[in-house]
Amino acid sequence: MTVTTTTPALAGTETQPTTVAGRVRKRLNTRWGTAASILIAIVWTIPTFGLLVSSFRPEDQIKTTGWWTFFSDPQLTLENYEQVLFGRSSSAGQLASYFVNSIVITLPSVLFPLAFAALAAYALAWINFRGRDWIYIGIFTLQIVPLQMALVPLLSFFSQGISVGGIDLLPAWNLDDEQRFLQVWFAHTCFALPLGVFLLHNFVSQLPRDLMEAARVDGATHPKIFRTIVLPLITPALAAYGIFQFLWVWNDLLVALIFAGGGDETAPLTVRLAELAGTRGNEWQRLTAGAFVAIVVPLLVFLSLQRYFVRGLLAGSVKG
User: Is the CB of residue 203 less than 8 Å from the CB of residue 194?
Assistant: First the structure.
């Protein structure tokens, strides 16, 4: 009788990766790779740290010396923040009111695309109707249309409405002052939907089919399935997309300036930041403080939703 024995692998030995990607990944996970990553992160953060230090330095020092001289002659002041937030002059800042405008613009511009994209993603993934695939392809192709190409048609729609053969299908909006927020919300929602539907559709379509069929057997309707099953499962995806949309809208200048105007009633924070340096560009010390005022809210949003953001990026990468 022949006995076949196998030699167990020696303890501590590792299987060598056979692919190029595997070998690169192994090298990046070494101590040298980790050290290089830390070094790159530090170098990347140095300019931001210098901007933070400069925002607390007096004006004369900002304009005459570099921020690194702070460590040899440390002088701190809150005058820059006081000017950009509550300055009385028209060129000083007054960012507090523009800060509120940015919040008013950003929140609906994030919530509307999230709601519409989630509903559309569910319908395109789990409701059978004629032309569903063509609608999805059309939404997907809209992502390649540059935003700038839609600015003039949207402005024409808001100011003139839509008419065919002399018949007015939709009247002109003719909005003034704070009512122009509606135009910004509408524009941001339109620009965000193609990417939002595409991303959320990828998550919704990967949900277990057995789970959906079991819910239908129990008599659940589409609204109930969407509310009780789909929404809790795609929360990480919604958070990830919401963060991207929030950062995009909060940092936007072009769309808000065109559709909301540059007036004090509707202009966002980015419009005022572009004017902080003064007409001759000699008041740029205010930009350091203004920049950090502008990043406070996005930073808080990202840190509060970070765990959902990571889960959303990793969702679907592994099964089990």
Answer: no
User: How far apart are alpha carbons 302 and 162 in whole angstroms?
Assistant: 40
* CB burial of residue 130 (10 Å; 0-12, 13-18, 19+): exposed
> Under a CB-based contact definition with an 8 Å cutoff, are residues 31 and 37 in contact?
no
- List Cα–Cα distances, 191 to 162, 194, 202, in angstroms: 19, 7, 19
Digits of tens for pLDDT over the chain (320 positions)? Answer: 454 444 444 444 455 656 655 665 666 677 777 788 888 888 888 888 888 888 888 888 888 888 888 888 888 888 888 877 776 655 555 677 788 888 899 999 999 999 999 999 999 988 888 888 899 889 888 888 888 888 888 888 877 777 776 676 777 777 777 778 888 899 899 899 999 999 899 888 888 888 888 888 888 888 898 888 888 888 888 888 888 899 889 988 888 888 887 677 788 888 887 777 665 556 677 778 888 888 888 888 877 777 766 665 555 444 44
In the chain the domains, ranked by start, together with CATH numbers, are 25-76 (no CATH), 95-316 (1.10.3720.10)
- Written as six digits, the tokens of 118 are 């989630």
**Termini Cα distance of the chain:** 42
Q: Tokens 């909060």 appear where?
A: 250
Amino acid residing at 255: V
Q: Are strands 167-170 and 162-164 parallel, antiparallel or unpaired?
A: antiparallel
